[in-house]
Amino acid sequence: MKVFVKTLKGTNFEIEVKPEDTVADVKKNIESVQGADVYPAGQQMLVYQGKVLKDDTTLDENKVSESSFFVVMLSKSKVSSGGPSTAPTAPPSQAPPASSLPSNVTQPSITSQAPVPAAALPQSAAESSPAVVTSAL
């Protein structure tokens, strides 16, 4: 059966698939049609009827029918060596603005926003609870 694939770049194309094909098979099909440098199967996310499809499910399980359309998106590649080296540099860049406050400016205290317990209220305020009026019919 033929299905249509829409990209976030605004292009559409069609591919030939079988109901028993897995989502991983469809991703490989898209990779072969569009090129591994443009849509690598490992980075593709296929969306059908608003749901991201899991690689190990079949098109039949996802109720994909003839002339349906998918949206293909690419996830960012996961680079393990680049992640840790950039993480330590982020906190120091956020710390200077907090310490650059003038000495006469103080941070608001969280304890000053705590609710006042009922025992600390004046006697008249603690006793002035709303009255419930019932009428006999």
UniProtKB/TrEMBL annotation:
Polar residues bias (residue ranges): 104-114
SMART domains linked: UBQ (SM00213)
Xref: Pfam families: ubiquitin (PF00240)
Domain of life: Eukaryota
Segments forming domain Ubiquitin-like: 1-76
GO BP annotations, alphabetical order: proteasome-mediated ubiquitin-dependent protein catabolic process
Any single GO CC term annotated in Swiss-Prot or TrEMBL for this entry: cytosol
GO molecular function: polyubiquitin modification-dependent protein binding; proteasome binding; ubiquitin binding
Region (Disordered) residue spans: 78-137
Matching PROSITE patterns: UBIQUITIN_2 (PS50053)
PANTHER family with a match to the protein in the record: UBIQUITIN RECEPTOR RAD23C, UV EXCISION REPAIR PROTEIN RAD23
Family: Belongs to the RAD23 family.
Protein name (database record): Ubiquitin-like domain-containing protein
